[in-house]
Amino acid sequence: MVSIPLPEVLRPKKLSQFVGQENLVGKNGIISRLLSNQIINAYFPSLIFWGPPGSGKTTLAKIIANTLKREFFEFSAVSVSIKDIQKVMTVGNLFPPVILIDEIHRFNKAQQDKLLPFVERGDITLIGATTENPSFEVIGPLLSRTRVLILNQLTQKELRKIIKRAEKHLKVKLDKKAQEFLIESSNGDARVLLNVLEIAHNLNTKYKILNTKHIEQALQRRQLTFDKQGEEFYNVISAFIKSMRASDVDAALYYLARMVEAGQDPLYIARRMVVFASEDVASPTALVVANAVFQACNTIGYPECQENLAAGTVYLATAKKDRSAYEAYMRALEDVKRFGNLPIPLQIRNPVTKLMEEIGYGKGYEKYDKTSYLPEKLRGKKYFRN
Q1: I want to staple 342 with a disulfide (CB 3.0 to 4.6 A). Which of 91, 157, 239, 375 is the partner?
Q2: SS (H, E, C) 144-167
Q3: Domains in the chain, CATH or no CATH each
């Protein structure tokens, strides 16, 4: 007898059973409205579901196919080729199949291009599922032929509802602390939550009530969403930098801990701190501190260097902020790009030959002259404002 995983057993078959994403499946949600409108069921628009793991992307795609009474095919962009997908496409079918491509952001541009004519003609109803921002990972022509729908991380209330269903199916209960621990550890991912609960139950079948210890046995590691090539990577490092800039030391330490726990390269974090020290901090000592953190991380590595990163973060976050040097340089750079290589005043050119001296190189130069040394077109301009 084949054992079916708990997430599959409890997967909702219709919209009324779906948990979460009220903005999409609620009474006025776009999916509810599309599915209730029988006139357009012959043509159902292609969609891209963008949301975190375990938020219901695959389940929603299956519900759409079931409701429309269409053939449903599920593929993963990691392991499938376009030829495999083409085998299930039927040209000119009045009721085209619903084709789910999980992790569609893994398809390269050429692969996505090959999907275009099938989507454009309506030969398939494409549902792409992705955890990454489609505007970065999906080509423009495919985006223009689909509707992007955003799925949110499941709330604690919604996860409790899923736990209740699982408890009923497994004929087991979680005590209050175990339930809260499981919810926190799953990081909004319903699939992880159900898998961990099922493992905990299988390891402790003699218990009718599971406690935190039972959940800890089943849970190898809390789920942290942090794809080093994905949007969340940029979101967390951005939050880290902006927290230091705002002198919010607690937030900065929190985002640092998120990166460290997810396995981010410590040298990457330290490099960003070196840049921050020059851009945002008033004291030149900040650059010395940031460089020292980088060298320490390079020498020591994990796990100890997380302490160096923490010390540097506290220093940079609490230091007085000043972007005047950075902003002055950017204003100067803007003029360089705008005007190109403007002639350098003869007065400050170096007369390395007799001819240069004769034509005025270095003439009238005094070490502590107060005259502007900018090119004539920019003379008197002020970039640095303190």
Answers
A1: 375
A2: HCCEEEECCCCCHHHHHHHHHHHH
A3: 20-150 (3.40.50.300), 156-218 (1.10.8.60), 231-318 (1.20.272.10), 332-378 (no CATH)
Long-range pairs of 177-183 with CB within 8 A, sequence gap ≥ 24: 177/211, 177/212, 178/210, 178/211, 178/212, 178/214, 178/215, 181/212, 181/215, 181/216, 182/215, 182/219, 183/156, 183/159
Query: What is the distance between the alpha carbons of residues 351 and 344, in angstroms, rounded to a whole number?
Result: 13
